[in-house]
Amino acid sequence: MTLPTPELHTSRLHLRPFTGADADHLARLHTDAEVMRYWDSPRWTDHARAERFLAVCQRLAEEGSGARVAIDRASDGAFVGWCSVTGWNPEFRSASLGYCLDSSRWGHGYATEAARALLQWAFAALDLNRVQAEADTRNRASARVLEKLGFVHEGTLREDCIVDGDVSDSWVYGLLRREWRQAGATVPAPVAVRP
Question: Is 163 in contact with 39 (CB distance < 8 Å)?
Fold first, then answer.
């Protein structure tokens, strides 16, 4: 079953499918030590990683297992980062949220705005009941983004990541459909996803 990658607009952002032209943006993003500081994998060391990333984006759409979108600033088209809903399980009606933003774009509310738009789409298009997200316990900024979106801290995965010899813990967050509605977000009727 295919799942077309959405194109979404917010007041300040444009979320869109990736294109081959995004490889350089992705390479810069994922080689930035500050961006990758709390990531669950090391910084990229070669440009070929960007090509593999783009291939995974295409495969997500083809397999119907989720969507990963590029985030551009609407005012000038500047690349901000990316956001994703992956690991969609139609039987459990669950998926995982992820995002990665250029460090120069931090502190402007872009992660929250982009994730909110993608969640709005995902709750409708995928008929989700639950979305899970994880954040390194040292990354308070990412935890704040999830809390602003209504995610609830559910626990800690102890020593679940070892990146370049650095052992870290992760917080697990969950957001249920009913909590999304209670927070004032609308959940439109499910959109049929065609095989």
Answer: yes
